Amino acid sequence: MSDLSLYICVILLSIIIFETARLLLHLQKAVDAGKRVIPVTQSLQSAHKRILVIGDSTSFGTGAIKSENSLVGRLARDFPNTEIVNASENAMNIKRLTEKLSGMREQRFDVAMIHIGGMDTISFTPSSAIKHSFKKIQQYLDMMSVSTTLLISMNNVGSAPIFRFPLNVMYDRRSKRLTELFANICTDCNLIHVPLYERRNDDPLLNHTEHTFAEDKIHPNDAGYEIWYKKIKNVVQPYVIQQQ
């Protein structure tokens, strides 16, 4: 090996070590942030609607400085006459979501809001496994008497500042493919799809004038959640206020 080749190898190895350390540092920040979160729920003795929110860290509220500014916190504030059960967990994937719903089959809800896809994007869950899980999910929701289910699928994971080339490109493509898969599943299962995915150049969290990511560079902060919530609220509102 020539001196030049050795020099190039050393540089590449140094870059890999640096980027790996940076990635692990921010992932640890995400884990620590998740441990500090108390997910928002809203208990009412006499509620017009009963909503189940279940999903990953986006509905758990990780990244929000104030819990009331998380997605579910905003939902509770805008619909005070609605009971909200938040069964979300950090790092929840489709398999864990299915398992948790299985244990909730005896409960009853009017509306279900499923936030999922981020972990399945990162861990490359096979499409066949996702489709199979949704067959079970649909069965469990029917047992729970859910009349309306909204599937809020993940954002463009590749847009998160934590990921750099080539991971950002890889996760961008993966997010797009899973968004299309979730759209097809919603059509087949009669679910309402609320996709958060946007192409990187159009991603509002990247193009907004305010800082929209939390310190871990993967979750939204209060401003980022506000952007997502506006999109979600426009879809969910008719089903929440219906028959109140």
Could you outline the blueprint of secondary structure elements for this entry?
Blueprint: H1 3-36, E1 49-55, H2 57-60, H3 71-78, E2 82-86, H4 94-102, E3 111-116, H5 118-122, H6 127-143, E4 148-153, H7 167-189, E5 192-195, H8 204-207, H9 222-241
Helix pairs in contact: 4-6, 6-7
Query: Helix segment count?
Result: 9
Largest sheet: 5 strands, parallel
Order of helices and strands: HEHHEHEHHEHEHH
What's the average pLDDT? 90
What overall form do the CA principal axes indicate?
Answer: globular
How many E strands? Answer: 5
- Radius of gyration in whole Å, from Cα? 19 Å
Report the span from N to C terminus.
Answer: 75 Å
Helix content: 40-55%
SS strand fraction = 5-15%
Which spans of ≥5 residues are poorly predicted at pLDDT below 50? none
The structure class reads alpha/beta
Biggest sheet, spatial arrangement of strands: 2-1-3-4-5
